[in-house]
Amino acid sequence: MKGIVYARVSTKRAEQETSLERQVADLQSLAEEQGCDVVAVITEQQSGFELNREGLYRLLDAIRTHDADTVLVQDDTRLGRGEAKLAVIHQLHRLGCRIMSRQTGGELELEAGESTILHIMAKVEELQRKWMSQKISWGMQRAIREKGYNPALNLKNQGKGGRDKKEVPVEQIVALKEKNLTFEEIAATMQGFGYDVSRATVHRRYREWAKAGDAETEKTDT
């Protein structure tokens, strides 16, 4: 596990710094107990009811870019208070992040009511993603019927065997990603149109496209 220690106090009073130092020390000890490699320590002095926190954004960015897969906190209130706490926990769960708590000595445990709310939030988002994916699928099927377009014809290596690089319409991957579909959902959509691609392949093609775009921008600037 690669973890980030996240410590927070509610005010910027000087005496609160001692609490931050104590939290960090406790969480580094927890990381050692759990066999977690600490890659970053984030501390901040800000209200837990506030979502606009620089440290919180740094934490989410690190999890999103896979620099870490675990966050270590003193207890659930360090992530936030009230609705803000549930929003943060929900986002971390969406990113596949584990939450370790010193209070429990392991995985964070929530109250039954809070767990129910998070479950409902996850189901609502799942419905929204599936709805968007289905709308895109219907649109592509309509294009096939009305314009005779068949994306499967773009597969150039069918029947040739071997491990040639898979031909995938990157422009469609980019278009689906811009509609906020996950790589898993994009892969499922592409599979529905005859492309034998995995989530990893879709993610790799998108990264290659983004990297090529960055290189072209640098060339233009110079």
TrEMBL record:
Q: Known SUPFAM superfamilies for this protein?
A: Resolvase-like
* Annotated InterPro entries: Resolv_N, Resolvase-like_N_sf, SSR_resolvase
Family stated for the protein in its record:
Belongs to the site-specific recombinase resolvase family.
Tell me, what's a Pfam family for it? Resolvase
Looking at the record, the residues that make up the Resolvase/invertase-type recombinase catalytic domain are: 2-147
Source organism = Salinithrix halophila
The protein here is known as: Recombinase family protein
